[in-house]
Design goal:
Length: about 425
């Protein structure tokens, strides 16, 4: 370890992070249930690696089930754990086990002790301890499903999820949307009013808008006319359900037919995405967009290439687009976009655990290619708070390594490297999401 790394790492470790993206449930939901290493550390990401290695979905659900004795579940899990311990996802969880709970990794000798320590800590104050005290995170941008985006404001700042209103499949979905948001939908005008009302209701409560439609479709959102969107919506309206009064002693039954095909829904969805960006831009809310790799297995990564978003960047010059996950594996393409478009920002949330080595090489390239004020260095992107901690450790390490290389190569001096570390890990997301602070 050379002296420049020690100096830069010490500074990096002192930075209070602004975490650009989390999926954490509220603390009360977490602490009110039984937890152990298998139920929490293998909720996602590591579970995708297990599935990729060949573990069945039935066995993955089995190892998470806390009603089954932990010993039984470990016996099913252990052979597969050996197959995925090499990955960034697994490294993240072992960091959490060691540094939060003081055990020597995750293995047959430690899993019971680790689970006991997790339960001992599973009480009010857990999130403050992990996020604020251990990870050094001041605030997390939270992708929440709470209807009114009510969160613990000391720890989280919420976003509005476009998926909550942009994916109706049938008439029943439209009825439910109208009831949920107090704005019945009978035509496209009503739908537009619902979206605008949603923004008005959440004014001052959310700090960004999140578009994660890449899990269902291509992220090329075409410009659609009112009539195209109206025709698509009418196809949804024509999908009617039917119900009948039950015979005494049976339950009420309702059947809803499947809606239009995915391609038929695209005009409406495209229209709503454009409307969302317009409303977000009016309110100076950044637009977070999922690009690159999908969580889970057997997805179509080509549908989330950030190059597919160019028409949005061109049309909405006043909007600020926070492009997620470094576009991985399309990191070089994203670099070109961020270099070319003033309204495009790179966000490394999730990226350090997808591939620590690729995160390092991408950041090294971006610092040569993209203005440094446009790079967001960390977002935990976890369902379990321990993962957010482990990811923060890996992010700090990667940023320190890249900046040390720049200093050793004579590109920056030590003071420049420290300044850029602070920008990437704190000041850049602070300016993007909290411009008035």
């Amino acid at each position: 370890m050379n002296n420049s790394y020690k100096d830069i790492r010490k500074h990096v470790d002192s930075i209070r992070l602004v975490d650009t993206h989390e999926h954490l449930p509220q603390e009360g939901e977490r602490v009110n249930k039984i937890v152990d290493v298998l139920s929490q550390f293998y909720l996602h990401y590591t579970s995708s690696d297990l599935r990729s290695a060949g573990m069945s979905m039935e066995d993955i659900l089995y190892i998470r089930d806390t009603k089954i004795p932990l010993d039984y579940r470990w016996a099913v899990f252990e052979p597969w754990w050996e197959k995925i311990k090499n990955t960034g996802y697994s490294r993240c969880m072992e960091i959490a086990a060691r540094e939060l709970y003081g055990v020597d990794g995750i293995n047959a000798e430690t899993y019971k002790q680790l689970s006991r320590k997790m339960m001992d800590r599973n009480k009010k104050g857990l999130y403050k301890w992990v996020l604020n005290e251990k990870a050094g995170i001041d605030i997390c941008i939270l992708d929440t499903i709470a209807e009114n985006c009510e969160v613990d404001k000391e720890l989280f700042a919420p976003v509005l999820r476009v998926s909550e209103y942009a994916s109706p499949r049938n008439k029943k979905d439209l009825e439910n949307l109208g009831k949920q948001f107090g704005n019945p939908i009978h035509n496209l005008g009503d739908y537009i009013n619902l979206v605008k009302r949603r923004f008005d209701t959440l004014e001052g409560k959310v700090v960004a808008v999140k578009i994660a439609l890449a899990y269902d479709r291509s992220i090329h959102f075409e410009k659609r006319t009112y009539s195209e969107a109206e025709e698509s919506l009418n196809k949804v309206f024509k999908t009617r359900g039917f119900s009948w009064t039950p015979i005494e002693g049976t339950e009420y039954s309702e059947v809803v037919q499947d809606g239009p095909g995915r391609e038929e829904l695209l005009p409406l969805q495209d229209f709503l995405v454009h409307l969302t960006i317009q409303e977000a831009s009016k309110r100076r809310l950044p637009i977070q967009i999922h690009t690159g790799l999908h969580e889970g297995n057997q997805n179509m990564v080509q549908n989330s290439n950030p190059e597919l978003l160019v028409n949005l960047f061109l049309e909405y010059g006043d909007a600020k687009f926070d492009i997620f996950h470094g576009g991985w594996p399309y990191s070089s393409q994203l670099s070109a976009l961020a270099k070319n478009f003033p309204n495009v920002y790179i966000d490394m949330c999730w990226m350090h655990i997808i591939s620590p080595s690729r995160a390092i090489s991408a950041l090294d390239e971006w610092l040569d290619e993209v203005p440094v004020n446009k790079i967001m260095g960390f977002g935990g992107d976890y369902l379990c708070v321990e993962g957010s901690y482990g990811h923060s450790v890996m992010a700090r390490e990667n940023v320190a390594k890249v900046l040390t290389k720049k200093v050793d190569d004579g590109v920056y001096d030590i003071d420049e490297a420290k300044k850029y570390a602070t920008w990437v890990l704190r000041d850049n997301p602070q300016r993007l999401f909290f411009p008035e602070k």
